[in-house]
Design a protein that fits this description.
Layout: E1 2-5, H1 13-28, E2 34-37, H2 44-52, E3 55-58, H3 61-65, E4 71-74, H4 81-89, E5 93-96, H5 100-114, E6 118-122, H6 128-134, E7 141-144, H7 147-152, E8 160-165, H8 171-182, E9 187-190, H9 196-211, E10 214-218, H10 224-236, E11 240-243, E12 259-264, H11 270-283
Parallel strand pairs: 1-12, 2-3, 2-4, 4-5, 6-7, 6-8, 8-9, 10-11, 10-12
Bound molecules: FE3-S4 cluster.
Amino acid sequence: MEVIKAKTAGFCFGVKRAVDTVYEQVEKNKGIPIYTYGPIIHNDEVVKDLQAKGVRVIQNKEELSRIGEGVVIIRSHGVSKSVCRQIEEQGLVCVDATCPFVKKIHNIVKKESREGKHIVIIGNSSHPEVQGIKGWAENKVTVVESYEDARNFSAPCGQQLCVVAQTTFNYNKFKELVEIINEKGYDISVLNTICSATKERQTEAKKIAEHADAMIVIGDKNSSNTQKLFEICKKACNNTYYIQTLGDLNMNQLRSVETVGITAGASTPNNIIEEVQNNVRIKF
Ligand code: F3S
């Protein structure tokens, strides 16, 4: 049996950097309380492992306000300026693991809104990354998520607009939403800030699934990017299995296949991927 593991399976650059940062901080700050602002990634295994090492998760500003000492790590999604300020004002150490691609959006939003532009963020309004980006605007800011939002958008005549995107937003939908806003005749500058990591992972997964007899997609059941990956693979290969860990894999389903593909969502740690890969190899 041939086992093909996707090169893009698992953590993207920004997530890996953020997770590594937490482990480094644990090593560096023995005896000092360490917190992450929100779970560092959507993966129970990793969050539990960090919890066992004493890392606590702060869910919101209210919980943050009750902390008197320690290190607060900001995850790859980033946070608003007010959260950064609150961490500093409380005398806590802030370790910023915001993905540099997200940080770049914060800087654009800060600069352009300072110059008087109305910021339009194309993204999912309830997503923490979008909430964070919004919090760097110093002027008017609107989140456009749907075609309806785009159609309903309006700004005063002569108002300059600056459009940015959530890093994981679908590129085609981004283009369509920008087009709807553009037709209204504003003075508009559009910055495509979509990160290519998700797209590359999906393209590679599809390619492998098209050639494989069975496909394994590994990721947390609550991870939306893993669910999307599963859908893409399932379309290309009917024998696609969605597992969280090796324990969920039914080896009998792979008995008569010749080629097995493996991919994983952005929040799946490498050790889980390797464990699955090695076991599939050994069993067959
Ligand atoms: Fe950063 Fe792109 Fe990952 S923005 S967190 S490298 S998906």
